[in-house]
Amino acid sequence: MKKLALHWQILIGMTLGILWGMFASGFGLVNFTLDWVKPFGTIFINLLKLIAVPLVLVSLVTGVSSLSDISRLSRIGSRTIGIYLTTTVLAVILGLLLVNVFEPGKAFSAEKREEFKEQFAGATTEKSSDAESVKKQGPLQPLVDIVPSNIFHSMTDNGSMLQVIFFALLFGIALIMIPPDKAQPVNDFFEGLNMAILKVVDIIMKTAPYGVFALLAGLVVEFAGDDPGSAVELLLVLGYYCIVVTIGLALMIFIVYPLLVVFVGKTNYKTFLKGIFPAQMLAFSTSSSAATLPVTMECAEKNLGINREVSSFVLPLGATINMDGTSLYQSVAAVFIAQAYGMDLDLMTQLGIVMTATLASIGAAAVPGAGTVMLVIVLQQAGIPVEGIALILAPDRILDMLRTTVNVTGDATVAMMIARTEGQLHPVKETEEV
């Protein structure tokens, strides 16, 4: 009997996790779920985080050193960053168009606004203080943060992925510049290490369906508590806002990316979606582009035929700086909060949101909830009351799952485009697809 494909196993795990969460909320099993089920989800996330930094470091070193031509590295790098910035700006503008047309914020009553502000006052203060510390930094601080003072310290923190990428690029370039006979032993070491790390990824992914089940079960019971109806009621109140964000994210996945995949990547979009689907499901359940990166790379290489030379460079970079879904969410959320407070934002203010959201997405860590902290900076730049973030904290975890799925899909789309233009996209047989 043929083994069920990984993405179907993950999908089943997600479904069962949600059902268990609702069942646990209704039958007094909330504490049992939090104590005995959710920890396995945490273990799964820790396993993915465990391998994220080694994977990025080793894959980038092998990818850059295999280029054997610095001018080619410069060409691929400039194209990659250019496309990432373009899709991010497009996502922000799309979000602004949708939120101005549908105006979801105007559906809020003053009573409901005060209720949310009171309920989430603590979380709002925490996000505001985090953002304030970022805001106090100088204009070139993001550039300073890219260069590590101690690479070993950076490798102990998944939030320092840009620093790891910088070191890996620098080390890979150095390997290109030294004599080939001296570089070869180092290249062989990293190639072997890369194979071992990918095998660790395979082992971890065998536990994915169970980890996803535990994650979703824990999420549902935390959201609903002992009353499953409260989760439904809360989502209905904020449903309009969620629908607008979801429409924007759907347009990215089903309109924007298909156009890029078909006309630039010259690949059937159904084939593309089928190949990247396991990574999308994992992104949805983990809300972390960084945690999903090992699977995204595996799907890109095995299912889509993207050469490792391209995937090992473009995808780790995308997981760090390309946040299309997060950028779209930030633009919708900012204007939504302004509408809820009865503010009318002029064109210049909204153009400022485009710029700030784009830059904020580059600096956002590829972990759950990072976009919320960066949103505070967007709100402050636009002169929108920061406490209004309390209005969107309730459904944010669900939307975080959706926008992370868009982020990962965008990374794979750009990787396919770069691979096609570089002649590094190889046909994949149907039997090889997940």
Automatic annotation (TrEMBL):
Q: Which organism is it from?
A: Pontibacter populi
Xref: InterPro entries: DAACS, Na-dicarboxylate_symporter, Na-dicarboxylate_symporter_CS, Na:dicarbo_symporter_sf
Subcellular location per UniProt equals: Membrane
Arranged from A to Z, the UniProt key words for this protein are: Glycoprotein, Membrane, Symport, Transmembrane, Transmembrane helix, Transport
- Keyword Transmembrane helix part of the UniProt annotation: yes
The entry's protein name is Dicarboxylate/amino acid:cation symporter
PROSITE patterns listed in its UniProt record: NA_DICARBOXYL_SYMP_2
**Any stretches that span the bilayer, and where are they?**
12-34, 40-61, 81-102, 160-178, 237-264, 347-367
Q: Tell me the organism's taxonomic lineage.
A: Bacteria, Pseudomonadati, Bacteroidota, Cytophagia, Cytophagales
Topology relative to the membrane, per the entry?
Answer: Multi-pass membrane protein
Q: Which domain of life is it from?
A: Bacteria
Q: List, alphabetically, the Pfam families matched.
A: SDF
